[in-house]
Amino acid sequence: MDWIGLNFVPGSRRRVDPDLAHDLAQQVGGRIPLVGVFADQPLEEIESVLHRVPLDAVQLHGSESPEFCTRLDRPVWKVFHVGKGWDPGVLRPYAGVATYLFDTALPGGGSGGAGVSFDWSLMPANPPHPWFLAGGLGISNVANAINLLRPDGIDLNSGVESSVGVKDPARLEAIMEIVSVWRTQAVVVGLPGRPGEGVAVENEIWPCWSVSTSRESPEIEIRGLLDLLAIHRKMVLDLRQRAEEDFQSLTIELMHWQMIAREGGGRLKFRLPDAMVEAALRNSLSGLIDLVD
């Protein structure tokens, strides 16, 4: 988690009183930066909160003008509400903001937090950077969003709540596992592939790495596997793209990978092409490699 958001929008069910926000900031102690959420509020009101709460950035969810954004003495994250008929041309006057954040346009307006995704095909082809994605993101769709859109960051809200305004630690942990695979993709170069959708295993969501057909040397692939295991104690490796490989050779390789994971205190499960799963069952090898049910 890179930022903590504090909502100061009047009437919002997630609004935090500035005095409580001050106490929360003291507990955080500068370890994680804070962004304050506002929507169409007077400059004086925002400045009053800034005087009380040590915010590192301001997120503006309303119809604030480009000129208004320049009057704040904190980096501004400007929210743009995406829906049918919206015009990406509205971005141009906001060239001076620190971050562009795309959220769902709600009927009758609103400042987000409704748990509804927008049609991602409506995103501009080349959005200005850095840009964040918001709108109904949760365990079920965050990996797809990341893989399809490649945002610089994601804004999580209702998708990690057990009820309105109450964040669920288990959901947060599960989604951070998924997100951290994506964030480390540039580091994990030895095991070619990309993040996949999180997989339900034993009543948990395990992060998934979809292993590509391109191959490195065994030593480099093991180094890439160790990179992943250094971040994730539990992983699903999806090898369905390796359908053309020799089954016996791949089985020996996966047994070796399992041993490496176990020696480090981790666990691996595998997704294989249907033909390989059938071969494992025929040859009584399914007990030697841990397959996803």
SSE blueprint:
Layout lengths: L3 E4 L10 H11 L5 E5 L4 H10 L4 E4 L5 H5 L5 E7 L16 E6 L26 E3 L8 H8 L3 E2 L6 E3 L2 E2 L1 H15 L9 E9 L2 E8 L6 H14 L2 E5 L8 H17 L3 E5 L2 H9 L11
Parallel strand pairs: 1-2, 2-3, 3-4, 4-5, 5-6, 6-7, 11-12, 12-13
Antiparallel strand pairs: 8-9, 10-11
Helix pairs in contact: 4-5
The number of distinct structural domains comes to 2
Question: Gap between N and C termini, in Å?
Answer: 31 Å
Could you describe the largest sheet, including whether it forms a barrel? 7 strands, parallel
Number of helices: 8
Q: What is the share of helical residues? A: 25-40%
Q: Show unreliable segments.
A: none
Describe the structure.
This protein is α/β, with parallel strands linked by helices and 293 residues long. It has two domains: 4-183, Aldolase class I (TIM Barrel), CATH 3.20.20.70; 193-282, Transcription Regulator spoIIAA. The chain is built from eight helices and 13 strands. It has a seven-stranded parallel β-sheet with strand order 1-2-3-4-5-6-7, with no helix packed on it. A four-stranded mixed β-sheet has the order 10-11-12-13. Strand 10 (193-201) and strand 11 (204-211) form a beta hairpin. Helix 4 (142-149) runs parallel beside helix 5. The longest helix has 17 residues, at 247-263.
